[in-house]
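re: ur question from earlier - yeah i can do the single chain one, its not a big deal. heres the input i used so u can compare w yours
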Amino acid sequence: MVLYYVLGIFSVVLAGLVGMLVWIYGLYIGYMASTGQDVEIPVITDFAKQYT
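and the output i got, formated as tokens:
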């Protein structure tokens, strides 16, 4: 039983950290784009270039 609680808490903390990192990366990309620099997001940019 205790293992389930520990794994549950660990999962919530890990998901929160990953979500926060993704959010910070989005802020960074947005800032770089607002300064006029060309921004490349590896998977999304390649996908967009393929279909334009």
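Residues 24 and 30 are 10 Å apart (CA to CA). not sure if urs matches, ping me
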